[in-house]
Amino acid sequence: MTNAISVQNVVRSLYDRPELGGEEYYAHDVMTDWLQNNGFDVTKNLVMPTGYLASYGKENSGPVIAFPAEYDALPDIGHGCGHNLFGGISMLAAKAMQGVIDATGGQVLVVGTPAEETFGGKIEMVKAGIFDNVDIALMLHPGTKNGLGAASLALNPVKFEFYGKNAHGCRAFEGASALDAAVLAFTSINFQRQYLKKDCYIHGVITDGGNAANVIPAYAALEYYFRAPSMAEALQMTEDAIRRAEAAATACGCTVEHSIYECPYGETLLNEKLAELLQAEFVALGLDEIQPINYTPRGSTDVGAVSYVCPTIQGSIKICEDDVVGHSKEMAAATISPAGNKALTVGATALALVATKLLYEPDLLQACKDEFNKKKAESDA
User: Fold this and answer.
1) pTM
2) What is the C-alpha to C-alpha distance for residues 275 and 349, in angstroms, rounded to an integer?
3) Are residues 21 and 79 in contact, defined by beta-carbon separation less than 8 angstroms?
4) Do 265 and 154 contact (CB within 8 A), yes or no?
5) How many Cβ atoms sit within 10 Å of the Cβ of residue 329?
6) How far apart are CA 207 and CA 159, in angstroms?
7) What whole-number distance in Å separates Cα of residue 214 and Cα of residue 169?
8) What angle do CA 57, 313, 101 make, to 5 degrees?
9) What b/e sequence results for 18-38 when a residue is b if at least 16 CB atoms lie within 10 Å of its CB, and e otherwise?
10) Which of 52, 59, 251, 378 has its CA 20 to 30 A from that of 24?
11) pLDDT band for position 371 (cuts 50, 70, 90)
């Protein structure tokens, strides 16, 4: 059985048994078993119960190339974001690098990063220092386009909890409505939107507003995402919203507390040199209609955390046509289609060729690092 076919089987098995973020126990075991059986040293249950690290090569013998792997699924939809294939591409690319590592030295890693869709496993891996000694991180996300990556938005998730006093609905003057405070805050934060800068967004919902119509609610809650091109801007938006929530609570005779209820996501630091290298390999492998870097940020991803530790690229590879939307059962089915199987081999080959070029040409590796250091310094300023 060829390596590609055996990884196809892994991709299919993950498709058949999708697991939510933080619960990818089957995926963890299947992927780490494959990696162990294919010559990698594997650390299971790393940082998180479903995280892992697979390595090949000797430490301190040369550059370290990491292929992060995703493998969490979505509720009801399964692998509608294609993470089963994402992880397979990283595994196959790392396998293809073993002979190169034998010749050049260095290390290749597969970093199993759970829960991209929920709490952001890469962020936890970064906090634990897993990427501290990594020189380059390479990955590909399945989708409707062949592409060289995109900017992403920083995301700050904030929960507002309002506290009032219960009373009978006919004697409301004896209580203080936490729901009134929440609705007033919600309205005020809506007014905040017209003052937002370009590519900044606010998404919010009322998650708790009471349970009975004839009871003045003593508790209400709002949950928000504040998104912006940089975390500094997202935090400024958050501070404005906090002031509005506090004013609303005071106006209604209530109090309010705010907290971070999910893991914040930083923006992605793009690396144009890596994009240039990936494009060259895509072209050499016969891919066409390659999308350039998209500098207009839309969504948020935990890849941003990795991109602030080492030069990073998350390109995309086509597995279906434009009429298939992301986070759908149709996208999930495409991961195990003939187009998905082709993307597995072509994508893994492209990543391995980029990694090989970086190992054999130190000047290219240094150029990627120089760009990373320059952009990181500008961002930190």
Assistant:
1) 0.90
2) 15
3) no
4) yes
5) 14
6) 10
7) 4
8) 15
9) bbebbbbebbbebbbebbeeb
10) 59
11) very high
Residue 307 and residue 152: Cα distance in Å, rounded?
A: 11
Distance, in Å, from the CA atom of 240 to the CA atom of 189, rounded to the nearest integer, reads: 8
Residue appearing with tokens 């500094």: 232
Half-sphere exposure of 308 (CA within 13 A, CB side): 22
Backbone angles phi, psi at 135, to 5 degrees: -85, -40
Per the listing, tokens 């195990």 go with 336
- Give the tens place of pLDDT for each residue, 205-228: 999 999 999 999 999 999 999 999
What is the pLDDT at residue 1?
Answer: 56
In a 3-state reduction of DSSP, which class is residue 279?
Answer: helix
Q: Percent of the chain, pLDDT > 90? A: 97
Rounded to an integer, what distance in angstroms lies between the CA atom of residue 348 and that of residue 249?
Answer: 54
Pick the CATH number of 3-151+267-380 from 1.10.150.130, 3.50.50.60, 3.40.630.10, 3.40.50.1780: 3.40.630.10
d(CA 114, CA 125): 10
Write the single-letter amino acid at 143: G
Question: What are the boundaries of each domain within the chain?
Answer: 3-151+267-380, 154-260
Structure tokens belonging to residue 216: 């003045």
| Maximum Cα interatomic distance, the chain, rounded to a whole number of Å | 81
Token pair of 91, please?
């595994």
User: Are residues 124 and 47 in contact, defined by beta-carbon separation less than 8 angstroms?
Assistant: yes
Residues 139/92, Cβ–Cβ less than 8 Å = no
Instruction: Give 181's Cβ-side CA count (13 Å radius).
Output: 34
Partners of 291 in the β-ladder? 147
Tokens representing 31? Answer: 């992927």
Do residues 87 and 14 touch, judged by C-beta distance below 8 A?
yes
Cα separation, 276 vs 368, in Å, equals 10
CATH number of 154-260: 3.30.70.360
Tell me the three-class secondary structure of 225-273, residue by residue: EEEECCHHHHHHHHHHHHHHHHHHHHHCCCEEEEEECCCCECCCCCCHH
Q: What is the DSSP letter of 130?
A: T
Residue type, 140: L
